[in-house]
Amino acid sequence: MKVLAILYNGFKAAQQEPRLLGTVENKLGLDKWLASRGHELVVSSSKDGPDSDFQKHITDAEVLITTPFHPGYLTRDIMDKAKNLKICITAGVGSDHVDLNAAVEHKIQVLEVSGSNVTSVAEHVVMSILNLVRNFVPAHEMIERGDWQVSDIARNAFDLEGKVVGTIGAGRIGYRVLQRLAPFDCKELLYYDYAPLPANAVSNLKVRRVEDLDQFVSECDVVTVNCPLHEGTRGLVNEELLSKFKPGAWLVNTARGAICDAEAVKKALESGQLSGYAGDVWNVQPAPKSHPWRTMKNPLGGGNGMTPHYSGTTLDAQARYASGTKSILENYLDGKPQEPQNVIVGMGKYETKAYGQR
Ligand code: NAI
């Protein structure tokens, strides 16, 4: 059996740090184990275009492992050519790089390691909110430049205390973000999600659900996006929705880049409609050098908290998603049932309710 894994190159870092498991070099720790069971493992970072290793090897692979940090985009066309493909495993959380509707039709199962990096992302979200609200990045850059002008930073620095913070999507990550924000004494914590939080979660955090999205964004000083990318969320945060935000709000998106319209976000930041935008996910990954989100700024020259996609790939997270990937693969090889929370698409149908209302 051929297992194809599309991972990112770790180069020198991966040789020096074996805990960088999600790299081409360290192969999620699967190589010896798969070889001992008589299976072939092909690992590559080459993923785009007809001559890529991804498109070459997908034609006879039975298992595809790929990661949201360096996604091999499994489109319907490529699926048509993948005659042996039975199961796609996402080493991490978020399987939008697979055309899930096509996977349902092709009876290809899609699983992810649910929960493996949700704390890692929630911590990154809280860090990003604080970075933006407190105007941290321009303050640090000023110090590196050798300058010292407190008023240039303080004129756009605020406390998180007393602000309204809301999450679009209140699943594993969204809920953990709200939990972590509770001690900051925000004015209110809000959520927008078609799935209501359980009553005890609501009363523990004193969080309020807002069912209308326009209303929700108009009440928030900070919006954080924590829902999957699917046909109902692609481009959800567009020019029209951004115009409904509170003027000068902050927006943090660590969910998926394509949930936000790239040009509309840039314009909103440059006009001051947004005071800041932060996140680690991009509509194309790796993001081209010319991507507007790399350098966009608010009218005061700050408000950009972008990083490469790493919030969910801390070394702690890599240990969890590598071992979760192995468990999924082991269940598959041994014909054992999978953990239900990991199954996005089962045999010919969606098993999750998180990828849109159907
Ligand atoms: P989850 O499945 O626990 O929660 C997702 C929530 O979003 C669910 O409650 C669902 O009902 C809600 N939702 C779906 N569509 C919605 C819509 N149209 N409007 C409002 N809410 C909607 O997923 P989890 O673990 O919280 O992860 C969420 C997403 O975060 C992943 O799908 C992935 O895209 C992203 N992620 C990013 C990482 C990173 O490294 N930046 C790492 C892990 C996840």
TrEMBL record:
Limits of the D-isomer specific 2-hydroxyacid dehydrogenase catalytic domain: 38-338
Signal peptide location: none
UniProt domain D-isomer specific 2-hydroxyacid dehydrogenase NAD-binding: residue ranges: 127-310
Keywords carried by this UniProt record: Cytoplasm, NAD, Oxidoreductase
Annotated site location: Important for catalytic activity: R256, H309
SUPFAM superfamilies named in the record: Formate/glycerate dehydrogenase catalytic domain-like, NAD(P)-binding Rossmann-fold domains
Protein family: Belongs to the D-isomer specific 2-hydroxyacid dehydrogenase family. FDH subfamily.
Subunit structure: Homodimer.
NCBIfam families: PRK07574.1 (NF005750)
Protein name: Formate dehydrogenase
